[in-house]
Amino acid sequence: MDNQNKEYDVICIGQVVQDILVTDIPEDALVSGKDTVMAGQVLLASGGDAVNEAVTLARLGDHSALLTRLDKRNVGDMIFGDLVREGVDTSLLVRPDDCRTFSTVVVVKPNGDHSFLVGPGENFTPEMSDVDLSVLRKTRAVTAGSLFALGALDQNGIEVIFEEAQKAGALTIADMNFDCAGIGPHAVKKVYPYTDYLMPSYDEAVYVTGEKDPDAIADVFLNAGVKNVVLKMGAEGCFFKSGEKRFFTDPFKIKPLDTTGCGDNFVAGFVHCLLKGMEPEACAEFACGAGALNSQGLGAHLYIRSEQHVEEFIRQAEKAALNRK
């Protein structure tokens, strides 16, 4: 794409969290009556949708910046240090005195799925006062990670940011999360006309649209103004639809170790390819590879090493043939 000489490749706006990953916990651990349960591994890492996207983009070779709130305590300092080590630009971070970044215990199940135990936080979501709109002229793309997890920006702000980004010639990409705050399935509809690529998971999209067929889901978003819909379907790959193209991308045959952050790695992989000017089919192939590869290690963004790492995985991994039309 154009705008090769911008200061940033991607500005990632959204969620940051401290992840505490725990593996091999018995399912009855909390009701067994035992006061001590041995875990397989315990891993402390940064996480959250925007962080996962920013770190993976940096590992793929892009200049990514994180725009969000981060606290000044030990948790915030740990995450800040992690971002610096990963090469993520931290110049847009806002660290208010009253911000408390929350921690999440991620219980990784034997099949690679996970459950989240979310701790409390305070003033941890970005607000419009944190955003200097002029910075949008300095980036090639902006991601929202994720809609329904942006706090006040969900209903009053993210649509302004995306509109200004588009005016500046930047791509706008939005992931989705589950509606944990209960703001309703139509709460973020104002952002759709300013969204170049919307990338919800299948379950999130069903909640928002009320539809179950991938075509019908995509049509709801397209009719609302979204330009391109990329439906993440987990073990079934993904579905792409725009006004000009429509296709499924088959998944890779893998045995996941940990699926935490795989959707965020998918988004990062897709955006990385968009910035290289690749066609949607190639973007989707690489994105599916990034999501699948991330599942082969623990953590939301710790396994992928580079663009070459993903490309090597894609060359060697077997794909499922689901024969969808």
TrEMBL record:
A biological process from GO: phosphate-containing compound metabolic process
Descriptive protein name: Carbohydrate kinase family protein
> Record's Gene Ontology CC terms?
cytosol
Q: Name one GO molecular function term.
A: kinase activity
Which Pfam families does the UniProt record give?
Answer: PfkB
Q: Which UniProt keywords apply?
A: Kinase, Transferase
Where do the Carbohydrate kinase PfkB domain residues begin and end? 10-300
InterPro entries in the cross-refs: PfkB_dom, Ribo/fructo_kinase, Ribokinase-like
